[in-house]
């Protein structure tokens, strides 16, 4: 289900959090563009909300001592586009992207501002398209592409950002279709192709003429 920003939740004249000063930014026509909060040092602290031209929430996030901190949401045309989390100004946790229909399209995981863990992309029906393992902002571990039914199409191991090890492509039934061996991003063996054991047996021209 599509998640929409909530115009009823707009903080028009609500009191700021204790110890913070509310600061509004408005367009020349008086439209509210953003609401921020400043601490005693003049740094952004607490909730920050930006608004689109139609008055709906465009971005909602938190600040602590001048840096983004905590969960954040971004909307496009009133629809949820991105969910993410900051810690001390850096991306930390899962960043989730959504398509125009509100369906989950991607998940990218971060630790202290760097990709770390599994990055995944999904089709509109929720099936996996590709998954990539990251460590310290570099591909490290298996990268897998998928058929529409969710079974692996190709699997390639990575080490420090480079293909390293046995890369296998699969037939739709799961049998190996192609093998390539990589070392530090360079193919050192293959590719070697394999026939699909589930495919109909090929008949020679003579066999077809003889009805065999």
TrEMBL record:
- Chain residue ranges for the region called Disordered: 1-21
UniProt cross-references to SUPFAM superfamilies, sorted A to Z: Histone H3 K4-specific methyltransferase SET7/9 N-terminal domain (SSF82185)
Name the source's superkingdom.
Bacteria
Gene3D superfamilies per UniProt: Histone H3 K4-specific methyltransferase SET7/9 N-terminal domain
* Xref: InterPro entries: MORN_2 (IPR011652)
Pfam families, per database record: MORN_2
In Swiss-Prot or TrEMBL terms, this protein is called: Toxin-antitoxin system YwqK family antitoxin
């Amino acid at each position: 289900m599509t998640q929409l920003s909530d115009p009823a939740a707009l903080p028009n004249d609500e009191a700021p959090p204790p110890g913070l000063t509310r600061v509004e930014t408005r367009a020349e026509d008086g439209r509210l563009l953003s609401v921020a909060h400043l601490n005693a040092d003049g740094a952004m602290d607490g909730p920050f909300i930006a608004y689109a031209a139609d008055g709906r929430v465009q971005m909602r996030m938190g600040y602590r001592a001048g840096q983004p901190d905590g969960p954040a949401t971004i909307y496009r045309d009133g629809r949820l586009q991105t969910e993410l989390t900051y810690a001390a100004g850096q991306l930390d946790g899962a960043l989730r992207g959504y398509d125009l229909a509100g369906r989950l399209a991607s998940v990218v995981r971060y630790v202290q501002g760097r990709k770390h863990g599994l990055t995944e992309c999904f089709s509109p029906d929720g099936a996996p398209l590709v998954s990539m393992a990251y460590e310290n902002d570099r591909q490290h571990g298996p990268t897998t592409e998928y058929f529409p039914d969710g079974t692996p199409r190709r699997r390639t191991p990575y080490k420090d950002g480079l293909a390293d090890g046995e890369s296998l492509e699969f037939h739709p039934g799961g049998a190996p279709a192609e093998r390539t061996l990589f070392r530090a991003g360079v193919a050192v063996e293959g590719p070697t192709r394999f026939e699909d054991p589930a495919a109909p047996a090929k008949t020679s021209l003579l066999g077809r003429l003889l009805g065999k």
